Amino acid sequence: MSFFQSFKLALQSIRRSKMRAFLTMLGIIIGVGAVTVIVGMGNGMTNYISDSFESMGTNLVTASIQGRGTSRTVDVDDMYALVEKNPDVLSCVSPTVSVSGSVRAGDETSSTTSVTGVGEDYAAIKRYTVETGRFIQYVDILRRQKVCVVGSYVAKEYFSGNAVGQTIKVNGNAFTIVGVLGEEAESEESSTDDAVYIPYTVAAKLSWTGKITSYSFSAASEDTVDSAVTLIKNALYKVYESDDYYTVTSMTEMVDSMESMVNVVVLVLGAIAAISLVVGGIGIMNIMLVSVTERTREIGIRKSLGARQKDIMRQFVIEAGTISAMGGVLGIAVGYGLSAVATKVITSMMSETITVAPSGSAVLVAFSVSVAIGVVFGYLPARKAARLNPIDALRYE
Amino acid sequence: MGALIEFREVYKLYQMGDETVHAVDGISMTVDKGEFVAIVGHSGSGKSTCMNIIGCLDVPTGGQYLLDGRDVGAMNDNQLAKIRNRMLGFIFQQYNLLPKLNVLENVEVSMMYGGIPRGERIERAEAALERVGLTDKLRNMPSQLSGGQQQRVSIARALAGDPSVILADEPTGALDSKTGHDVLHLLQELNREGNTIVLITHDNSIACMAPRIIRLADGRIVYDGPSGADGSVVTAEEAVAQ
Prior knowledge:
The complex is a heterodimer.
Chain A: H1 3-16, H2 18-56, E1 60-65, H3 76-85, E2 90-99, E3 103-105, E4 108-110, E5 114-118, H4 122-126, E6 130-133, H5 138-143, E7 147-150, H6 152-159, E8 167-170, E9 173-181, E10 195-199, H7 200-206, E11 214-219, H8 225-240, E12 246-250, H9 251-294, H10 296-304, H11 309-350, H12 360-386, H13 390-395
Parallel strand pairs in A: 5-10, 7-9
Antiparallel strand pairs in A: 1-11, 1-12, 2-5, 2-11, 3-4, 3-8, 6-9, 7-10, 8-9
Helix pairs in contact in A: 1-11, 2-9, 2-11, 2-12, 9-11, 9-12, 11-12
Chain B: E1 5-16, E2 19-31, E3 36-40, H1 47-54, E4 62-67, E5 70-71, H2 77-87, E6 88-91, H3 103-113, H4 118-131, H5 147-160, E7 165-169, H6 177-192, E8 196-201, H7 204-207, E9 212-217, E10 220-226, H8 236-241
Parallel strand pairs in B: 3-8, 3-9, 6-7, 7-8
Antiparallel strand pairs in B: 1-2, 1-4, 4-5, 9-10
């Protein structure tokens, strides 16, 4: 009996007991569906992370200095000198100084708006665009001008779009707005658009310590990111003579480490979901064993008509594999359906767009695994059927 | 040319607890091609075991069984399956049709295992069903047929494989006497057309339909001869008494 005939036989037998076949499949459907959705969510997260980091610039390298006593220091000029001496590796640098405190625009106070002191190249490093007005310039830094550039959220929310020329107060100091940045994150609260940028020299004064401890570099190109990291590390090591007092990270490293974190989470969740595949497999084995007992007489008749052990074996293995594969296909469909629902739910709940997208390879793996489970768990019942003694099987009532 | 079926001192012993049961206790016999033989005996006489051995469903524990000159006792499971498929046609008391297949498909099954292509399979199945007079029932399910019709389907199934031997195990056991006689007449006709038929029954009146009778008791042959002869209908007890 050919494979095709065995397959037809399996379909016939499944069609005869649809309800039972469906219930048998359920474990596989749930398992494959869950794996599909979880992998899809992982993909969505990874895409979301790399998209949002890419918009910040993958050439970005940040250095943050904890410092070691007062004798060993690195100042802004050292960093600018580093960039100037290595134009083939680094293209520009900007000190960054975070200022904590409140922001007042007119009579409204914002606690979510971030205030950062930056250099004139900061917009280029972060790939921000200036929508209206201008960015912070060298002269502002030199003269410690109280000017600022605001993100699109601040401009829209507090100045209804006409921000340039207005004033905004940071910890009581009035800053004149000279520019508005283009939209980066759909102008939402607490996002990159909810920000105020001031000259770093001014920020250093506002932050009391007066020290500048953090720098953003832009590597000359994506290919020089790694050498830029090494270069900056070496320069800092010369000063501090230990790598415990500073950290240098590139955006690509951060993306990589975040993606690998997501992957670990997906792997763990996927493994949990895969347990249901094993449970589904046991369900298939159970039903196939019942089916072999029920069909003992049929097996006897087939053997008397000349079916070899191999034929009977194949009939039952293919039947189990087919049930499992159908469960796999349904599970994939369920997985895609749930993914679409999950995308909608996440989007409406988190105000971020994360597309839950199951990957083709994951679907292929899920399908092959489900077929394999059917074959593996169908093997034992099939062997039991194949080894039945035809005389006893024929007499079985 | 040798006999189609040849038993040479065939034994079949079972272990039942401490006791050894001699189900077949040294039977020697031959059946030639084209014969119609009835194997008769009470339950426990060993006729079912005999049938299982002839049908290659079981192998003897001692002696030799030659089917068409080949020693069946030395065959493995696959070879036995092949012999059953190519050389034997079974007719059972309970018909043993596959309930989920229609009449035509039931007749096709054994040819499917024999690897006969679909076109030829259908042709042969239809011819066999025509032979038993069921041309109008090809698409019916077995449950829609009467007992006699179902038995004729199983005869067609046996015929379609073009076997060397047709083995009929109590073929009339589940039928009323009239339908039973029709089935027996059909078997007689098939024999006249050249088929070798071995009929297994406990019923003397049915056994008489065969020209030759082999009577078994306690695993031994007590009579082997024409059905018309005096000794053909003696009971086992009488045979033992003789």
